[in-house]
Structure formats: C-alpha cells, structure tokens
Design brief:
It contains 17 helices and 16 strands. The protein has 480 residues and is of the alpha/beta class. It has two domains: 185 residues, Rossmann fold (3-Layer(aba) Sandwich), CATH 3.40.50.280; 267 residues, pyruvate-formate lyase- activating enzyme. The strands form four sheets. It has a six-stranded parallel beta sheet with strand order 9-12-13-14-15-16. A five-stranded parallel beta sheet has the order 3-1-6-7-8, sandwiched between helices. Strands 2-5-4 form a three-stranded antiparallel beta sheet, with no helix packed on it. α1 crosses α7 and α14 runs parallel beside α16. The N and C termini lie far apart (83 Å). The model has no long low-confidence stretch (mean pLDDT 93).
C-alpha cells in the first residue's frame, strides 16, 4: 500500500511587528517526526523560513539576513489593517514568504493526502486563515487538519473563522497518528504509542534546507499557574525529559545540522535543578563543544545558585532572560509568587560573580495587566536598572482561559467574545485611547533609555549620593 503523504505548514504572521527570535514550529516538527517514524511521508512549507531558496533569489541574496546567533528579520509586506484595530497608528504587515512562492510550493511535490496547519498566538489567526483559504483554492479536495496554540485555546473560534476539516487540541503526535488512521483506514498508524516524552523521535528539522539555530525542549508544560499565562492549558501535564537524552539530542543535532546556537523552549527550564539542568550542563561543559545557548523564555531566577550560574557561564549562555514581572508584593502574590526582589538580587549576584556582565542579563517586566498602575511598572523597571540589568517590557496580552482575561472582561476593558485581534500585545487592548498609547510608549522609551545606560555601564543608583540627588531634583520638577 502506498504510504500517506502529509504536508505540514507553518503559517505567516500578520502583526505590527515580528522578528525571528529563535522561532520554529517545534510542536509541528515533533508531529512530523512521529508521523515519519510510523511510515508517513512528510513535507514542510514554513512561511517563516528565512532561508527559502525562492525568497533569497527574490531578495538578491546568497543567504538570509541574520544578526548574531542565527536570528534575524522576517521578510515583510505591508497589508491592510483589519477594521477592528484600524485605530492603531502603525503599519500592519504579513511576515514571511510572498504568497506566490507559497502557492508555487503547494504544487512543487506530489499532491498530499492531508495538510496539517499549526497555529501560534491567538491574535495571529489571519495567518492560518489565509493559508487555509489558499489550500482550499489550490488543493480543494485535500483534508485540512489544524492544531497548535490558537486551536487549543479557542477551538470554537477556529471552527467558525477557519473552518478546518479536523481540529486537534493539546499535544499532537499521538492524536495526529490516530486521526490519519481513522480518515484513511490505516490501522498501522493506530495504537502502540510511546509512553514517555523521551521515546518520541526528535523534531524533524531535516525538512529544512538550512538552519541557523536549533531549538530544544527539556520539558513540556509548566507547574505554575500564572494569572496571565495559558501554558498549562496548552499542555496540562508538566513532564520532564531525562538529562542524558537532552544532552544527546543537543550534541547529535548541532553536529548534524552544523549549528552552534541552541535555544531552550522550556517554560520551566530550571525546575528541580539538581536533577535536571545541572546534570545537562555538566555534560555539555565536559563535551567541550563550542555551542552558544539562549533562553528566550523567562527563567525562574530563584533556582540560580552559585553552581548553576557558573555552569551557565561555562556552557556559553549568551541570552539570559530572567522572569521578574513585578516587584509589587500583592502582584507577586497574585501571579504566583515565583520570585522576590531579594531572590532576583541574589541570582544576579551569582551570575555576575560567575563571569556574566550585568548589562548582558535581561529581565521580563509585565505591563498593562488589568488594573495595573503605571507606577508599579516604573518601580519594577527602576529596581531592575538598579541591578545593572536590562529590561524587556512584556505588554500584557489577554489570553482566553486565563484569570486575567476574565478580569479584563469583568472590568469592562475587553468585551466578551472579542475578536482575538484586539488581544494583540501591541494594541494595548485594555485602554484603547491615544493617551494610553502615548503613556505606554513613554514607559517603553524610558526603559530603552535606561537599557542604553546599562549597556554603557552607567547606573543611576550608584553611587548612592547621586541617586539621592537625582530623586530630589526629580521631585522638585513637580513645582515647575
């Protein structure tokens, strides 16, 4: 019997801004790897692939435009801004391949038996929506199966707005195999599935012609239940891999694809450090491989002790982002009490003692939570700056199913059943006025100014005499 052929698609991003910060459709690649291991032929169209040959030819480039560590800008084409967010004073764009290249790729190989489309942010749904429209147009009789974050969090909206033939929620490897077995009467795809995360094949990065970096997960899910985060709804079980399996994947895959940069996708990378991350990093250090590591998701800084900090430095961690969110006591208690200012201070001290420059460290600070005053954000920014570290403002995006999403509706900041486009973090959806936009823009520019000072080694909090004089002068400006 002829093997099934499945086409996997990673859609475009439609947004006001987008950048490739180690962005790969890891869940889709896990599904692709598992299906291939079960005898299914798999191909991929990644609309966000910077190395796509047709795109490079059109750009007149030999290789993709990248900055340090394999990251870089996506191809961008300005498009009409949807009506519901037309009040935004920014240009809306489609990021990724030109549509004609996508259509050409749809016909570049044997017609697929099924199409799998993944989804990411809920407010990025115009991307998969357009993918499905074009697939219906070009391959009208091929069933379309959709999964991923948006599909898991807003299945009813997916069904009405995208109208896929089938919808998968949560982790997709086993579900994908079982669904294909049912649709095409292929019993060999059903049953006898792996019972542990380490028993699944690696994500199928072989589908790319070229890679600039590798992404890895040493665990899935998150044991925390932050009020603004939906990770536990996407994958309800927090499962951790065995350290030796993680190390083997990193060493094997970086050698195979000849890349140096590795980004951890974990939401709780440092949990149980003695059993997990420390053994992983000891083996990486002992391998003496010239790799560079990145943590785009915020790290739980309370777990960073002297040994872990030294291991991170020795293993060449180049992107270290710590989760702070807020220094306000009530906010920290409400969120989940993941970190205190004292624990953050100790973590930064351990990291700088290990060899990191404080200005090389970053911390996430959340802005725009329902009812969150601006002075709370500013206080948190000033605290982070006092440590000499840089700030990454994380504008709140109301995620369906989270406590803060419900709070936004209860406060009247967000209408029930709002178009997901209104939850875009760039929109600042809870206060859609020009004054609010300018206020948050000012906060953002203030953090950029402090970050530039941190890069130059300038700290407005040391010496103490300067800090005191600065705030006395600032207080007197109220009399102007």
């Amino acid at each position: 019997m002829k093997p099934l052929h499945v086409l996997c698609i990673n859609p475009w991003i439609y947004d006001f801004a987008a950048y490739d910060f180690w962005s790969k459709p890891l869940g889709l690649l896990y599904v692709a790897g598992y299906l291939q291991s079960r005898g299914v032929e798999v191909s991929l169209i990644d609309c966000l692939d910077k190395y796509h040959p047709g795109l490079l030819k059109r750009q007149g480039r030999q290789t993709a435009k990248i900055s340090r560590y394999g990251i870089g800008p996506f191809h961008k084409e300005v498009v009409d801004t949807p009506d519901c967010i037309s009040f935004m004073p920014r240009k809306f764009a489609r990021y990724g391949l030109p549509e004609d290249l996508f259509i050409k790729d749809l016909h570049s190989s044997e017609k697929p038996d099924a199409i799998f489309v993944t989804t990411a942010m809920t407010y990025w749904y115009p991307g998969p929506q357009r993918v499905i429209e074009l697939c219906r147009q070009e391959l009208p009789d091929v069933p379309i199966i959709i999964g991923g974050i948006y599909a898991t969090l807003m299945p009813d909206h997916v069904k009405s707005a995208l109208k896929p033939d089938h919808l998968l929620t949560g982790p997709g490897e086993v579900q994908a195999a079982e669904l294909l077995a049912e649709i095409f009467d292929r019993p060999e795809l059903s049953g006898n599935h792996p019972q542990h995360i380490d028993d699944f094949p690696y994500p199928l990065f072989e589908l790319y012609e070229q890679l600039g970096y590798l992404v890895v997960m040493s665990s899935r899910g998150c044991p925390f239940r932050c009020t603004f985060c939906a990770t536990y709804k996407i994958d309800s079980a927090f499962s951790q891999r065995q350290p030796d399996a993680v190390v083997k994947e990193i060493l094997d895959q970086t050698r195979k694809f000849q890349v140096r940069d590795v980004a951890f996708y974990d939401d709780a990378l440092l949990m149980q450090p003695e059993k997990r991350i420390k053994p992983i990093l000891r083996e990486i250090r002992d391998s003496q491989r010239p790799l560079r590591f990145h943590t785009p998701n915020g790290l739980h800084a309370r777990y960073i002790d002297e040994e872990l900090a030294k291991l991170m430095y020795d293993c060449n961690f180049k992107t270290v982002r710590l989760s702070l969110e807020s220094v306000a006591k009530e906010r920290r208690r409400d969120i989940h009490n993941k970190i205190t200012p004292g624990e953050m201070t100790r973590a930064v001290k351990h990291l700088t003692n290990a060899g990191f420059q404080a200005s090389d460290l970053e911390t996430y600070i959340i802005m725009g939570l329902p009812g969150q005053p601006v002075d709370e954000v500013l206080e948190t920014i000033l605290y982070a700056n006092s440590l000499g570290i840089r700030v990454r403002l994380a504008s709140f995006s109301p995620i369906p199913g989270t406590k803060d999403y419900e709070r936004a509706i209860e406060r009247g900041d967000l209408p029930a059943g709002a178009d997901p486009l209104l939850t875009n973090k760039t929109v600042i959806p809870l206060e859609r006025t020009s004054d609010a936009y300018q206020r948050y823009h000012a906060v953002s520019q203030f953090s950029h100014m402090l970050n530039e000072g941190a890069r130059r080694g300038v700290n407005f909090f040391r010496p103490g005499e300067f800090k005191d004089n600065f705030f006395k002068a600032l207080a007197r400006t109220a009399e102007w």
